[in-house]
Amino acid sequence: MESGAATLREIHSQPEVWGRCLNTLDKLDLEPLVPAASVTPIDTIGAGDSFNAGFLAAYLLGEAPDACAVFGNRATALSTLRPGGTESFRDPGFVREFLFPHG
């Protein structure tokens, strides 16, 4: 995990790297292919932070970018199911059931 954190620190410290990545992605003209989880949100506070956390968690585990985005989307959806930015994450059984529905 430390190597992933070191990579993120290195990239973050080099804004020109971010610019090249964004420029390359923009030229690819890709359509979003990552499905959103269908939920009825209670509160969207913290949803963006939850996406970032889910995406980075999957990334640090070595997942492909599309799988990271899927996990980020699921973390976002989960975060909206209870009031407040973190309440949905306080019940480990609820988190496990929602994020890993098939075991």
User: Could you give the distance between the termini?
Assistant: 23 Å
User: H/E order of the elements?
Assistant: HHHHH
- What is Rg? 15 Å
Residues in helix, %: 55-70%
User: How would you sum up the major sheet?
Assistant: none
Work out the helix count.
Answer: 5
Describe, in plain words, how this protein is organized in 3D.
There is one protein chain. The protein is mainly alpha-helical and 103 residues long. The protein has two domains: 1-30, no CATH class; 35-103, no CATH class. Helix content is 60%, strand content 0%. The protein has five helices and no strands. The chain has helices at 2-12, 15-28, 47-60, 65-79, 92-99. Helix 3 (47-60) packs antiparallel against helix 4 (65-79). The longest helix is centred in the last third of the chain and has 15 residues, at 65-79. It is globular, with a radius of gyration of 15 Å. The two termini are 23 Å apart.
Summarize the SSE layout with pairings.
Blueprint: H1 2-12, H2 15-28, H3 47-60, H4 65-79, H5 92-99
Quick structural overview:
The protein is mostly helical.
Descriptive terms for the model:
103 residues, mainly alpha, 2 domains, globular
